[in-house]
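name: query_chain
kind: protein
chains: 1
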Amino acid sequence: MGSLMLAVELNWIGKLIYQYLYGWVSGWVTNNEVIGGFAVTVILFTIFLKTLTLPLDIWQKQITRKNSKKSLLMKDDLEKAKKLCGDNREMMMIKQRELNKKYKYSPLSACLPSIVTLVVFMVVLTGFNSAVRYHNYTVFADLTDVYETTYVATINEYLEADGNSTATEDQSNNATLAAEGAVLEAYKPERFLLTVNIFMPDTMKLPIPTIKEFTGTSLGDLRIEGIDSNEYTKVMKPIIDKYNTKENGKKAQNGWFILPILAVVLSLISAKFMKPPEQIAQISQTEEQKQKAQSQAKMMQYLMPIMMGIFPMFYSTAFALYMVVSSMLATLLNLVFNTYAKHADAKERQIMMSTTLK
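structure:
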């Protein structure tokens, strides 16, 4: 690895993903045309993280389930309180607080798990960005070493054979071709299905980052400063020529939006399985306010999955893969939990009915 690597560092989650997990996976996974080592790393990391946060997910679902039950128990008392208070909004609010306290109902009880989930999402996002930035820079640093070593070795061979102290223009051109060939042979793309480079977005982006993408702001915080544009263009030219251009001369694209679309679809399916916490209508609310709250809740149910599909389009395919695998595991968990909750509710009703009959 070249001295250029001193300029880029990994954050702690990036180290976990790239240095430790990817370093371990690279020892036993061989890259091929279908899936590379980093894709395996992402899948294993997602499973590990989901297992780690499983108690939090179950806690959130239990809170949602309890709130739903409490809302049913409070329904009759809320209607009575509303009739008793009439148009006295101040008394309505007092009665609402009394009923919430009586039934131990807290409309904000499910917020803490959601906040923790959001924090985990942002931490993972920065971790993947750090790992991708580090990898792109590692590739450039390693290929720079390959290029310079091959170029110098080829020039020295010419000088030793001819006994000259300076290479001719033809010899310099041949050394350049040899260096480019060595770079092309040394570069091994990390693929995932139809995506050429897992470290670039699964969109119409070019598979190999150009100097503008490498040092600019088009990849968000993936920007790497202090890179000489001429040096980058010189070293990466053979790879850019091969992977960023089709046979017909048109620009190639890294992916086909498969993972972003899957992320949206799986998020919608997961949202269907995961019923949002049922909020008890405040007795002081007007009908217009109730309808507005219901419309906002319905909009959020579809807005979040769409956002889950937008994020992967601006970040690496690796992060998109994380989101897809995470959504798949979440859907599976929701299905299992809903099945358990359905049987548990049926058993509770059966016990209640048998107790009542006695």
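note: The chain has a mean pLDDT of 81.
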